[in-house]
């Protein structure tokens, strides 16, 4: 826990906002400056920040958070179909619906802790996935996924104008939510979401959640009713996931059951661990790395590799291409897997721990009277 | 007659065929330090667990400040003002010393649940000052309050836990062998701390093996053997009691 004064929050938020809003500029040189990928960075960033409030602070490992992502997407698309193409009601309703679902699932799952909690959330996730895939077809449109259509009522929009030609697109008071405007909208939502997470991390409430992670027995005998604290953290993180799901629908108005699958739940766990569990920025770093690998490494093919190693003599060039080829293109998961293993084995605190160690090494060279280990800081 | 803080009436507890507590009656008066001594397996910890909500007695009542506490949850009993120090240190190892002491202060001020994320923990000046004052009493000052609690020695952890309980200003403090497994100089530091608390007039129940500790701090002593209280009285009365000497002390230890 960082004990910095409130004044620092403003500085931190300004820097954070600047970094997020200038992403199209500084990500362009590494080939990630296009709206589609930028939107993914930001949306999964919100998902991971919210997940970190549960997993990072309380230590409760949920394997079912993709449920809330899916519910957010479905709710948002229904809002586009029934009410309006304006994105504000969509994200508002999606966040509320995800919160309600999180209250139900949390109420049951939080009766257990540790591995049993994880299994319960996983069971709920798979149940929800199968419901969305088959039983609830009238609501979710099953395998095909929920899409917009011309026959949608859109009552609020109809009250002001008649239906135009073709499918309408999502908008915020007339500004279309595709491409860069979509990215900037999501980026602003991320900045607000990050601000709330910062407030939680630095509040007594956040400190109590960390105390629950550290020793729940002591918390109970210290006079805290721990269940409502865990419920609050679970619901908040579910709402973050619902918000992220809604933004997915905002940038691309369709929702499918695969968004709820356990692999999607697993992905956010990977992102959080890779970046650094329980740190403010770690989950965002994890998102950046995984989404970058997914989009950039998977696009590299043998031709690109030949070009990359063309400075080497002929036989070495083909050798290098043969060695590296399995790790790119379709095989990008292999690279990710290796990276993940290296991080978990050598830096259990994730990339944030690595950065912390480097920082400490530099500080120690300058000043030997440094107070010893504060552990992983923010 | 002085005010009763805790009243334990004909409490029985069995585990399978074992009668762990046999018709135990105990009255704890306000402002007194009451020691419970007895050989291993006499039922001392069971008795404490029945008071704090960890175990529910088979029969009998436990009233705290006139309120029946049987069946209440651990956090409810704490909020009523009965606070316990455990035999193995129960602290928050991943948090800093300062945070360890701030957390119970929050429980005292805000109750069992409060959701306020709009004030930073660093801005809770009053609570930070109080926590730092408590830590100073342990000789922990300056930047050291930000050290991780998990890296301390066992004795320091136990004293930290004691301070965590003290910051709540409990009506009744339960101490489960506060010096068990400590070296002599470590024990003496804990006794110093306990004596300091005694001067504040806090009511305490203390379970202890170490007679040196018991006779240094206790006002009243009850002797528990095989689940039953066999004697109660002032330290001098207990010293001279032949039944106690027979059952437990064996005379020579005194």
Question: What does this 3D model show about the protein?
Answer:
The complex is a heterodimer of chains A (378) and B (254). Chain A is mainly α and 378 residues long. Chain A has a domain at 6-261. In chain A, 69% of the residues lie in helices and 2% in strands. Chain A has helices at residues 6-21, 23-26, 35-58, 66-82, 87-109, 114-135, 137-140, 155-160, 179-202, 204-214, 216-221, 226-251, 262-275, 282-296, 302-308, 314-324, 332-346, 350-366, and strands at residues 146-147, 171-172, 175-176, 254-255. In chain A, helix 4 packs antiparallel against helix 5 (87-109). Chain A is globular, with a radius of gyration of 22 Å. Chain B has helices at residues 44-52, 74-80, 97-110, 125-137, 154-166, 184-199, 211-217, 235-240, 242-249, and strands at 4-15, 18-29, 33-37, 59-64, 67-68, 82-85, 172-176, 203-207, 220-225, 228-233. In chain B, helix 6 (184-199) links the parallel strand 7 and strand 8. In chain B, helix 3 (97-110) crosses helix 4. Chain B is globular. The A-B interface holds A 1, 3-6, 9, 196, 199-200, 202-208, 210-211, 213-215, 217-226, 228-229, 232, 371-375 and B 52, 73-75, 78-79, 83-84, 86, 90-96, 99, 102-104, 106-108, 110-124, 143, 146-148, 151, 164, 168.
Work out the number of β strands of chain B. Answer: 10
CATH class membership of the largest domain in chain B? Alpha Beta
Biggest pleated-sheet summary of chain A? 2 strands, antiparallel
Q: Report the radius of gyration of chain B as a whole number of Å.
A: 19 Å
* Average pLDDT taken over every residue of chain B: 86
**Fraction of residues of chain A in helices?**
55-70%
Order of helices and strands of chain A: HHHHHHHEHEEHHHHEHHHHHH
What is the SS-derived class of chain B?
A: alpha/beta
Quaternary organisation of the protein chains: heterodimer
Shape assignment of chain B: globular
Uncertain residue segments of chain A: 368-378
What structural class results from the helix and strand content of chain A? mainly alpha
Instruction: Using the alpha-carbon principal axes, give the shape of chain A.
Output: globular
Output the number of helix runs of chain A. Answer: 18
CATH topology of the largest domain in chain B: Rossmann fold
Beta-strand share of residues of chain B: 15-25%
Q: How are the strands of the largest sheet of chain A arranged?
A: 1-4
Low confidence ranges of chain B: none
